Amino acid sequence: MKTILMQPLTRKFAENKDIAMTIRDNTLLPSLRDDETVELDFTGISCATQGFMHALLSDPIRQYPETVFDRILFKNCSDSVKEIITAVAEYMFLSIEA
After folding, report:
1. Looking at CB atoms within 10 Å, which of 8, 21, 52, 88 has the fewest?
2. Which domain holds residue 78?
3. Taking a C-beta distance cutoff of 8 angstroms, is the pair 47, 14 a contact?
């Protein structure tokens, strides 16, 4: 399992979509292709934008809808970060079903 410490990349507020896309393209998608698990550790991050989470998670959800949340694990998320993850996941799964 790979662990990504998000705070050194995003500081306390995860908002930069370019950083999210880099994490997605360089770690999440290759790991999912290789059937590996990735842990995203949000220690020290108080909040994230919906745009950041969408950039991070939309392609993995679209490409691996059945297994994405078995293989991407979220650790040490604030309530705010959990809400954004949930909102983006619900939106993406609804768009896949439509």
Report:
1. 8
2. 2-97
3. yes
Full DSSP string of the chain: -EEEESHHHHTTEE--HHHHHHHIIIIIHHHHHTT--EEEE-TT--EE-HHHHHHHHHHHHHH-TTTHHHHEEEES--HHHHHHHHHHHHHHHHHHH-
Helix 79-97 to helix 50-63 angle (10° resolution) is 40
- pLDDT recorded at residue 30: 97
pTM to 2 decimal places: 0.94
**Dist. CA 50–CA 72, nearest whole Å:** 18
Q: Which amino acid is at 13?
A: F
pLDDT per residue as tens digits for the range 50-75 = 999 999 999 999 999 999 999 999 99
pLDDT at residue 96, rounded to an integer: 84
